[in-house]
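Posting for a labmate who doesn't have an account.
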Amino acid sequence: MFFLKQGSGAGEKLGMYFTTVGIAFLSLVIGQLFTEIFAVKTLGYSLTKIPESADLNLTLSLLLIPFSFVLTGILLSVKFIHKRPVLSVFTSRKSFDWKRFGFSFLVWGVVMFAFMIVSMNTGAPIEWNLNFTTFIPLLFISLFLIPIQTTAEELLFRGYLFQGFGFFFKKGWIAILLTGTLFGLLHLANPEVAKLGNILLLFYIGTGVFMAIISHMDDGIELSMGYHTINNIFASLILTNDWQAFQTEAMYIDHSEPMLGAESFLTILVLQPLLILLFSKVYRWKHWKEKFLE
């Protein structure tokens, strides 16, 4: 069975999807309230107005913890409301394919390292920022909490909502466009959007569409999860700047002025299509027309 259609079984009802989306939203609110109260009561500041003197590692942890609430809410809903295997919102395979996850993780990681090296050698103001006192805790935070964050987002958009739109609209291309658009709009409150303008949302929407396509054609979210996870770990652990969503004690810091650079357009117009081509050849994707139109 195609991954998209795993949410269209005989026992599925539209009300189940509305209920689970509501639970996911409520879980996020509860998680954010929990971390916000902790920050205000214990640290003396709100997570909506983080002071420059704040402990960046602790702040990052507090920003990521609510995603564990979302992840838990979705998984419990799939199991107890939809009464179907949790694996069904991850993949159509008999087990989660860690090799696919690792391949996507590795490929996009190499590309990002290459971009950074080129930038450093073409005059970009990238500064060595390594401090082992702060970097070691960041390493554990990034490797533990960021995968929870990205898994929650992938499960919600490329897994659960994707199958929900498939159940309602019966068309793969509609599910791809809707989940891609919603994923982009999720980033509307990010500080980089405030800095660069709403045009940046086109990059996020394009990336959401890309990840929906590879999930749809590969019948599982392993490739998308690998891409998303290394993307966020890299932004947290390796190269950061002073205006993006993740403010961290990364190995390098980019002091470039906020701008929507050529690399953003290169990513969505060239690199992501090339990745689709690469994955399609490696995993021998078939039934393109059937999956998009039927």
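Reply:
Got it, the structure tokens are right above this. Residues 132-169 form the longest helix (38 residues).
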